[in-house]
Structure formats: structure tokens, C-alpha cells
Amino acid sequence: MRRHAPPGGADDGYPLSFGTTFASGAYAGAVRHALRCSRRAVGGERGADAKGNTLRPPKPPWRATPVWGTAATETRENPAAAGRRATPSLSAAAVLRVSVGAQCGGTTLRRINRRATPKWFTSWFPTDPHGNRALHPMPALRLSRGVLALIAIGAVALALAAYVAQRGTAVDVARVESTRITQSVVVSGRVLAPAKADIGAAITGRVQAVPADEGDHVVAGAPLIELEQAELASALAQARASEAAAQTRIQQWREVGAPNAGQLLAQAEANYRVAERDAARQEQLFKQGFIGEARVDESRRAAAVAKSQLESAKSTATAFGAAGAERRLLEDQLVQARAARDAAAAKLAQTRIVAPSAGTILDRSVEPGDIVQPGKRLMTLAVDGPTRLTALIDEKNLSLVKVGQAAIAAADAFPDARFPARLEYLSPGIDVQRGTVEAKFSVASPPAFLRSDMTVAIDIGVADKENALVVPAGAVRDAGLPEPWVLVLSDGRAERRAVKLGARTQARAELLAGVGAGDTLIVTPGIEPGQRVRVR
């Protein structure tokens, strides 16, 4: 700040004017303090203008004259302010100068540089006879140092913002690299036992013993549960006795029935022949008149009886023959007896429940003394066989997975023990509720700790490429849409380019088209195409 002495008196400390300039460019201009001039002598000290008019000391209100000007701005003052010099500008650039002037009996006039002052601004003020525009009187403008400091800070902030905008937004970048990339689909699954068998009783009975316990590994035919056998053992003995009786009857037929039938047939045949000859002889004697008709009738009747007995003997002999009905009947009785014996033996065998195949007892819910009934599950057996894994794969990954792909699995309980697996089955149907597809994996060499229904994580390798153009996954915009794109740093600006995606992982992505090795991609989100940027 500096003070201007009035033309005819000492500086009395009244503020006459102040100027503030703001320069635009790479930096903010300084804030200029107002010039202060003294009024004429307070009280009796008075001045005079060129016409001899007495000038009184200035009184409030003060007048403010904002002026657009340059370093060459000229100022024309009234006679009361004669000799006052215009404050030089701090730069050659256009500045805004705000002046607060003291009126000493007349209107302060300023000559405005029309080249540096907008027409809409100068049109606000009236003109004097010489064409100079003057401001209307207005209240004095008093600004404290704090306000001036805030103005200066705002000017600096605006200048910094302009500078930063000119330099561009700082962004993180990544270069397109030619390297190897492996893509995999990770799913959660479980160990699938080859088969599970629910063990139960086929008959009603009381449990006598339970030789197997949970966790035991048993072989095929090993006893698991034993029921009481006394009643069924007696039934089996009875059935065996019936079978023996049927066999005895067959033996009797063979030794007695069939031979007797043959003998009876022979006797009948002999009796019939005798009766036939006797009847013929009696017929001859009757014709000769030696005997009566009654005797002839008697002989005829005897011959008919003998013939009937012969037919009966033949039928009996046929029935008792090797292919006769009697033999078949005895054979059927033997078959029935044997069937009854087998049924009794089967029921007796059902009192001893054995393992259908080799496996491990997973669950046991029976104890000695329990009464069991058919249909009730008593044990669960995990059958030994090839170990497989099952998992549900999201249907959006169907284009990536194929039968025969290798996988790496690890149980959640043993995450460090990884073992190989292979995709061997994909369900032809899709779960509508979940949008998943069931997949099964074979395990050639399952680890010893692997158990049925154990949770496992399966990493399916779907791609393995060498010399692929790889970028961070965050550099790809709209990766899930049909037309992904990236922002390439080109000449300080973000340039949008459409790309084609290949293999992808959670952290990286392969670009098949749209960029080349060595291109610089913008990773920072929120950047628009065409925006000026710079590397952070």
C-alpha cells in the first residue's frame, strides 16, 4: 500500500481508492491494496479548483468506480483531483480494477479503455461532454484484510484448477503384455460315494447280535445283524421232513406201486383170456344142446368182467409207469416239499443280515433286543468303488467346460493336499431354479483321507495359452456385455477402442483384437473417452 498526498495538503489518513487485480494464466496475480489519499485539511483547510470554487473536505458516502483496463489505462479526474496519478497495472493482461474514490465536490470521471472493456460493462455508466463515462455515486466499499485474503486464496485455487485441467487427470495405466494365461472355472462340490446301501431286515424278528459298528470296513458277506432263529429253524426242519416223505413215496412207487401195477395187468390179461375161452366153449355147448342158455349167459358175464379188469389193470399200469400220472404226482409232491424246505431255509437265512458288498458302515441305528420289521433302515453302508466328485456348474460357464478336461481338487478340511481329477459327465438338463448344471469328476488316485460327502473345491482348467495379449481385468470396460472396450492412452487423451475378449481370470484378461503389445491402457475408472489425462 502507498499513499498519495493531496495537491495542497498533508495526508490525513482518509482512504481515497484501492485497486485489486486478477491475472489469468499459469498463475494467479497478486492482489493489489488500495491507494489511500488524504483529504483536505479538516475544518478550516479548504482548497480551490481552477475556477476559484472552494472545495470542502470529502464526506461519506464514498464513491466506487470499477473499471476494466490495462496497463495503458488513462484516468481523467475532475479539477478537485488534479494531479492524482492512475495506479499502474501489474501486468499487460486485461485486469479488473475496483477503485473507491473520494468525491471532492464533483463527479469523478474515468476514461475507460474500450478495447479492454466489454461494451455491456461500459454501457452502464453515463458519459460527460467529452465522451468519458462516469459512475453513479454509490456507497463506499470497505474490505478487510481477511476478505482480501479469501479473495486471493480463491484466485489461487481457480488458477490451480485451470493448471490442473490443462495438465489432465492423473490416471493409473497398464501396458499390454504378451505372456502366458491360464483360465479356470472354480466350483464347490462334494465327494460322491459309488453307492450307498440302506441295510434292513426282510422279516420281523428280535435282534440277537450286531457284530458290525459304525466306521467298520466290511467285506462282502460279512455278518452285520443277527436275529433269533429258533422258530424258523423248526419250520425248516419240518419242511425238510416233508421233503423226505415225498422222496419216500417216490421210492415206494418205484419199488412197490409200479411193479404191482404190472402184476395186476398180467393177472387181468390172463383172467380175460380164460374168460374168453370159457365163454367160447360154453357157446359151443349151448349150440349142441348140452347146456342151457343161463350157463351161456354166465360165461359171457365172466368174460366181460375179465375184460373190464384188464382195462383197469392197463390204466393202473399206465399211471404207475415211468411217465404215468402217479409218478408225476409224486414228483410234484417232492417239488413242493423241496420248495417249502427252501422257503424255510431262506427265512432262517434272513435272520442273519450280511453285507451285500465290501464297504464302510456309515450309520447304525439298531441294538441287540430290538424288534425289527421289514422296511426299517438299520444301517447305511458306503459301497467300495471308484471315487467320484460331483458339483453344480453355473450355466453361464457351459461354453467353457467340456467332458475330458483336467481339474485339480482339494478338500476343505485338507486344503494343502491337492489331487487330480477329470471331468467325465455333464448333465443334459439344467436346474431351472438354480440355473446350474450337474457335473461329475473321476478321481483315479483318491487320497486316503477322502470320505463320502466331504466338501471339495474343484479348479477346472478351461484354457492355457502362451504369448497371449494380457491386460489387468480392471482395464476392460463392459466386460460382461457383448461389446467390451478399453481406453488407450494416446497423445495425452483417453481413446476408446473396441476389443474382443479371450481367456479370463479374476485378475487378468486376454485381448484377441483391438490392441497390440505395448499399448498403454487406462485402468482408473470414471474416465471418459477423449478426456485429457496424464500418468500418475
Structure commentary:
It is a single chain. The protein has 536 residues and is α+β, with helices and mostly antiparallel strands. The protein has helices spanning 119-122, 145-167, 230-288, 293-319, 325-349, and strands at residues 3-4, 36-37, 47-48, 54-55, 63-69, 95-101, 109-110, 133-134, 169-171, 173-175, 177-192, 195-200, 205-209, 217-218, 223-227, 352-354, 359-364, 371-372, 377-383, 387-394, 406-411, 414-426, 436-443, 455-472, 485-490, 493-498, 500-504, 508-513, 520-522, 533-535. The protein folds into four domains: 1-167, no CATH class; 200-225 and 351-381, RNA polymerase II/Efflux pump adaptor protein, barrel-sandwich hybrid domain (OB fold (Dihydrolipoamide Acetyltransferase, E2P)), CATH 2.40.50; 230-349; 387-535, Beta Barrel (Elongation Factor Tu (Ef-tu), domain 3). Helix content is 26%, strand content 31%. Helix 3 (230-288) packs antiparallel against helix 4 (293-319) and helix 3 (230-288) packs antiparallel against helix 5 (325-349). The longest helix has 59 residues, at 230-288.
Kindly name the structural category: alpha+beta
Q: Which strands sit side by side, in order, in the main sheet?
A: 11-20-23-22-21-24
- Beta-strand percent range: 25-35%
Give the number of helices.
Answer: 5
Average pLDDT across residues?
Answer: 74
Largest sheet: 6 strands, antiparallel, barrel
| Percent of residues in helices | 25-40%
Number of domains: 4
Distance between the termini: 43 Å
Total strands: the figure is 30
Task: State the low-pLDDT regions, or none.
Answer: 1-50, 54-117, 133-141
Q: Radius of gyration from the CA trace?
A: 63 Å
Q: Tell me, briefly, the overall form.
A: rod-shaped
